[in-house]
From TrEMBL:
The lineage of its organism: Bacteria, Bacillati, Bacillota, Bacilli, Bacillales. This is Non-homologous end joining protein Ku. It comes from Solibacillus silvestris (strain StLB046). GO terms for molecular function: double-stranded DNA binding. Homodimer. Interacts with LigD. One of its GO terms (biological process) is double-strand break repair via nonhomologous end joining. InterPro entries: DNA_bd_Ku70/Ku80 (IPR006164), Prok_Ku (IPR009187), SPOC-like_C_dom_sf (IPR016194).
Length: 274
């Protein structure tokens, strides 16, 4: 399993060398875009909106747009120094809270935590502590130059780190439009709805839920593969001006040459007449 991050996590004076691994996979079926006429993959170029010129990576700088069309340009050296200052590979659990106190809207991405070679004992200690206390740890971690808020909890027999949003990253629910105000609900309708919920209530079994669209899409792709496989055309070589010029000159020469067979025939007739 690929290691995303390597460092240590601590609570109090207990330090645990750990590795971070992505706990989920994106199973989306990725489709390429082809030119309808020749089935060649479409590529995208970076073009300057001002001069319409294609821009190379080395000619691009990063900037922050603080108001419309006004930017603060940031040097790569300054950004690198800032990253080094904040890239602490040691994660300290700041607080312990109950999991149910955190609304699911805060959760973003899940990672598995595995102990490094020397961290097995401390890893088990933290896992057992969280299990016995019924609490989860709140911590901060820097991944790919971005500081993240996170929680550490137990999933089956493994420590899991959940990256969660900072409070200012969650939009204000008051900004959601067209939310109906409190209205009277007919008791009979409510009773019927509650009865329906009761009938559909069961234990959560994730294996019973499948991505039907992805399954159908992959089935369609397999059927298309057996019928006929579309092969993308190879990139055509760009025209060579020198070659084109030589071809044009040669064609011109060939066109202006006199037929040799006609000349011989004329010579033969002349000899006979003599």
């Amino acid at each position: 399993m690929h290691t995303v991050w390597k460092g240590s996590i601590s609570f109090g004076l207990v330090n645990i060398p750990v590795k971070l691994h992505a706990a989920t996979d994106n199973k989306d079926v990725k489709l390429r875009q082809l030119h309808k006429e020749c089935h060649t993959p479409i590529s995208y170029k970076k073009v300057c909106e001002g001069c319409q010129a294609e821009v190379k990576d080395e000619d691009i700088v990063k900037a922050y747009e603080y108001t419309k069309n006004k930017f603060v340009v940031l040097d790569e050296e300054d950004l690198e120094n800032l990253r080094k200052e904040n890239e602490d590979k040691s994660v300290e659990i700041i607080d312990f809270v109950k999991l149910e106190e955190i609304d699911p809207i805060y959760f973003e991405k899940t990672y598995y935590l595995s102990p490094d070679n020397t961290g097995g004992k401390a890893y088990v200690l933290l896992r057992k502590t969280l299990e016995e206390s019924g609490k989860i740890g709140v911590a901060k971690i820097t991944i790919r130059s971005k500081e993240q808020l996170a929680i550490v909890r137990v999933y089956k027999n493994t420590l899991v780190m959940e990256i969660i949003h900072f409070p200012d990253e969650v939009r204000d629910v008051g900004d959601v439009p067209n939310i109906p105000s409190v209205e009277a609900v007919v008791q009979k309708e409510l009773d019927t709805a509650l009865m329906l919920v009761e009938q559909l209530t069961t234990e959560f079994d994730p294996t019973k839920y499948t991505d039907d669209y992805r399954t159908a899409l992959m089935q369609l792709i397999e059927e298309k593969k057996t019928e006929s496989t579309v092969v993308a055309n190879e990139k055509r070589p760009l025209p060579d001006n020198v070659t084109d010029l030589m071809s044009a000159l040669q064609a011109s020469l060939d066109k202006t040459k006199k037929p040799k067979t006609r000349k011989r025939a004329t010579t033969t007739r002349t000899k006979k007449n003599a």
